[in-house]
Amino acid sequence: MKHDIPLFCIALFGTAAPALAQDQQLQRGLASTCFTCHGTDGRSVGGVPPSLAGQNKGYLLQQMKDFKAGKRPATIMHQNAKGYTDEQLELIAAYFASVKPGPATPAPRAGY
Hints:
This protein is globular. The chain has five helices and no strands. The protein has a single domain, classed as Cytochrome c-like domain (Cytochrome Bc1 Complex, Chain D, domain 2), CATH 1.10.760. It is an all-alpha fold.
């Protein structure tokens, strides 16, 4: 009977990995709309607009909710945020919070 618990844990973690990977793909897919302005994976060039990678999830979520509610003035973020449910905003905040901060990757040079 003592061996049932470890086998259960192995079975549980074995089935959770695909669900976790799928959730991360969903998060990145939702967050990808932010890449145009905030840089790939939220690493902006020169810090303008601010980098989102590695920011606190609660902070990011609150900022997006404030944009959505019109409490925080913006040129375009209030329009973007209104396109998401609160659950989707939470997934986006979780994605950027999970990304390691670092410098932006420069775009490849065009080869003419």
